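Supplementary Methods, section 5.1.

A reviewer requested that the exact input to the structure prediction be made available. We therefore reproduce it here, unchanged from the version used in the analyses.
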Amino acid sequence: MGLIHVAVGAIADDLGRILIAKRPDHVHQGGRWEFPGGKLESGETPVAALKRELGEELGIRVLAVRPLIRIHHDYGDRHVLLDVRRVTAFCGEPHGREGQPLDWVHPHEMAEDAFPAADRPIIAALRLPSLYLITGDDPNDADAFLQRLSAALIRGAGLVQLRAHALAARDFARLAERAFCLCEHHGALLLLNRDPDGVRGIPCHGIHLTGHLLALQERRPQGDWQWIGASCHSAQELAYAAALGLDYALLSPVMPTASHSDAQPLGWGLFAALADQAALPVFALGGLGPDDLSTAIDHGAQGIAAIRGLWSD
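The structure derived from this sequence is encoded token-by-token as follows.
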């Protein structure tokens, strides 16, 4: 069977809940919840198809959308491409015009097992923020370091990777505990960039694997972590991160950077091509800042990750 191209909508209400619909029992993946949408017709663009499908299924008129994620998934008997967009404005009250049950659910309350496998990266994309801070140089002064972190959180960083390789294990643990409290206060997620075996028991929301640590893994690291991501630089590394069941990837360098001046930048064209084939949310990294966020999203990124672009002096 050929590729089945599906336009999918992530529709949010004023409370941040997302609309989901239950599939009929007699169809493929029947009885599971899904995000509304449907197949593209011949010659139809994904946006046109989404507007048509949501009008037919829910009785709403879509006014504005933006890209969220594109997912390729092989079920064995069929290969689907889910072209997912956030619906940022619409008219009308959604209702199941085909008799399908509907529900409004916060992304963090979605039970992944209740959705088709192809939909699960969509749930991750809905849960993840768009600004990902990688902390700057290893801190000599923990208080000053945390003040800079607080400023970045106030400016909107929603995901923080604590990177302090030069710190001894005990000092790293102390800093991580204080950073975790600060992130919790601001509603942000803290990830620890450290060998998984060395951070068990340290308060955090997850871990981040360097490219070297990613290559050493034979399965998803075992631990009480909500989020596990990895640094990637190629299609092969992105595919391996997805095969391990990781939750997101950083893909770099998109643009030239002072810290890796010898690295060949991907540019937005190649970044978009690689992100399109990735089966997980991908952050753009390398020479970027908040002003690049809309460009990154337009090229298939979950958002942007940065050190200098988000870590103030």
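The chain has a mean pLDDT of 94. These observations are discussed further in the main text.
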